[in-house]
């Protein structure tokens, strides 16, 4: 379950002589982790695990961190633990590869992990194993240290296969760790329903954020706000570069790595008609001062919570009249959507409110072949030619958080205090759309903000970034002066 039969050494590694092996085996100082160290948010995790265990009494639940994925040849992608594992353990580091949280039928959580190499016992892993060795990828905790960090009972990962040989009813967060899926006979028709119910329960456990999670999300939003300012400051150099979008991507991503774990998703830096591509991440375009720039980005904290903010900026520093009209329509749609947010409101209400404003605006400009009311009818939707996607989603450890939640608890559910979500209406006027006048083709605008539901409404977590066009222009001018 842990290592391959042989150490993960590279094909071009130098051989280790018996003399070197003997020399490497001794005279290493003890390097214990600080005894007082705990995972951030330590007090909040026991209740989460207990709630999950209570949902499946008498069953064993397996929540893996996941495995390394090869990027190319012998190089792996940077590892990030699965969000469900991080949510239940507080462990978020790259050293969590292959680890599994087991919740036993009696409700006791046990963390099965690969502890650091026991050099005293003669293990050569610490300097010979490229994938897991301490000299190659950094230190792991031993069993005792992991127990202190998390408050969990710990066991060696090698003990897991024996544990799973019995007949205890077992559910697995499948599709995350191929080795664990193989060990437990996944995927199979017999397990599909049970595993799907576990995945839904894990997602629904994250729908309402506790106070510590809201703090982490606010921290992410604050770092993201600083990253947006970095992008504006980088505009003069980027406008001169043949791939200006990449220069701006680098400016934001530098902030994300400096202040957090990195970006919460691939940064979208879309200028001109690229902004009409909803998930434009090539970011290889040249910047034209007459165009708009759509920047959709989020910093992921070290605790793995991410922001998700979008601003559409005039690269010249000032909107043209046509750009301003379109921008103000999207802003009005966002304002209408935000006004619906409160406990007890349907999750879909904010999208409906925003789309009504969009449809009415398009109809007033003569861009729809039918009235706004007709376009909004459920058997029509013609306005969606210009605004294809939804207007928001839950936010948390994943940018599209709680995606496995059942529809009745999320998309068809109601908002509750502590939920965190985005509101992001947009207009995407394709460059080849002959239903549009030429001066409007190739313009994409999205305005996206992050909000937490409060007892009587919603708090705009990203309020530090201006949304109104005049304030946006003034903000840019200040940063560029």
Automatic annotation (TrEMBL):
Family matches, as Pfam families: AMP_N (PF05195), Peptidase_M24 (PF00557)
Known EC number: 3.4.11.9
Catalytic activity: Release of any N-terminal amino acid, including proline, that is linked to proline, even from a dipeptide or tripeptide
GO cellular component: cytosol
GO molecular function: manganese ion binding; metalloaminopeptidase activity
InterPro entries the record matches: Aminopep_P_N (IPR007865), Creatin/AminoP/Spt16_N (IPR029149), Creatinase/aminopeptidase-like (IPR036005), Pept_M24 (IPR000994), X-Pro_dipept-like (IPR052433)
Keyword RNA-binding among UniProt keywords: no
SMART domains: AMP_N
Keyword terms: Aminopeptidase, Hydrolase, Manganese, Metal-binding, Protease
Signal sequence segment: none
Keyword Nucleotidyltransferase: no
Source domain of life: Bacteria
Co-factor(s): Mn(2+)
PANTHER family in alphabetical order: XAA-PRO AMINOPEPTIDASE 3 (PTHR43226)
Family to which the UniProt record says this protein belongs: Belongs to the peptidase M24B family.
Name under which the protein is recorded: Xaa-Pro aminopeptidase
């Amino acid at each position: 379950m842990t290592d391959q039969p042989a150490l993960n050494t590279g094909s071009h590694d130098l051989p280790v002589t018996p003399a070197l092996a003997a020399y490497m085996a001794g005279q290493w100082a003890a390097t214990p982790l600080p005894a007082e160290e705990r995972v951030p948010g330590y007090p909040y995790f026991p209740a989460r695990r207990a709630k999950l265990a209570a949902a499946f009494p008498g069953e064993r639940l397996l929540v893996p961190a996941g495995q390394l994925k090869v990027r190319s040849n012998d190089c792996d992608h940077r590892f990030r633990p699965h969000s469900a594992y991080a949510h239940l353990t507080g462990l978020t580091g790259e050293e969590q590869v292959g680890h599994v949280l087991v919740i036993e039928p009696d409700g006791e959580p046990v963390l099965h992990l690969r502890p650091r190499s026991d050099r005293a016992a003669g293990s050569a892993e610490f300097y010979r194993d490229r994938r897991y060795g301490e000299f190659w990828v950094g230190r792991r905790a031993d069993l005792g240290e992991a127990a202190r960090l998390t408050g969990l009972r710990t066991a060696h990962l090698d003990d897991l296969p024996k544990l799973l040989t019995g007949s205890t009813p077992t559910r697995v967060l499948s599709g995350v760790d191929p080795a664990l899926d193989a060990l437990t006979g996944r995927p199979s028709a017999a397990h599909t329903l049970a595993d799907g119910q576990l995945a839904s329960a894990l997602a629904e456990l994250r729908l309402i954020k506790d106070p510590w999670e809201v703090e982490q999300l606010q921290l992410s939003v604050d770092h993201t706000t600083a990253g947006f300012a970095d992008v504006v400051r980088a505009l003069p150099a980027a406008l001169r570069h043949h791939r200006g979008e990449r220069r701006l991507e680098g400016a934001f991503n530098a902030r994300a790595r400096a202040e957090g774990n990195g970006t919460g998703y691939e940064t979208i830096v879309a200028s001109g008609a690229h902004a009409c591509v909803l998930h434009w991440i090539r970011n290889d375009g040249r910047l034209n001062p007459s165009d708009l720039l759509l920047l959709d980005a989020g910093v992921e904290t070290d605790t793995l919570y991410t922001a998700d903010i979008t601003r559409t900026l005039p690269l010249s520093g000032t909107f043209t009249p046509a750009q301003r009209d379109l921008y103000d329509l999207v802003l009005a749609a966002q304002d209408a959507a935000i006004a619906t947010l409160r406990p007890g409101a349907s999750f879909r209400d904010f999208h409906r409110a925003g789309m009504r404003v969009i449809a009415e605006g398009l109809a007033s400009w003569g861009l729809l072949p039918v009235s706004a009311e007709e376009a909004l009818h459920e058997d029509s939707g013609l306005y969606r030619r210009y605004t294809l996607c939804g207007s928001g989603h839950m936010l948390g450890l994943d940018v599209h958080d709680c995606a496995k939640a059942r529809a009745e608890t999320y998309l068809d559910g109601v908002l509750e205090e502590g939920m965190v979500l985005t509101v992001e209406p947009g207009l995407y006027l394709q460059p080849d759309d002959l239903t549009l006048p030429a001066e409007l083709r190739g313009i994409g605008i999205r305005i996206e903000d992050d909000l937490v539901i409060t007892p009587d409404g919603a708090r705009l977590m990203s309020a530090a970034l201006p949304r109104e066009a005049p304030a946006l222009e003034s903000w840019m001018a200040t940063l560029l002066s």
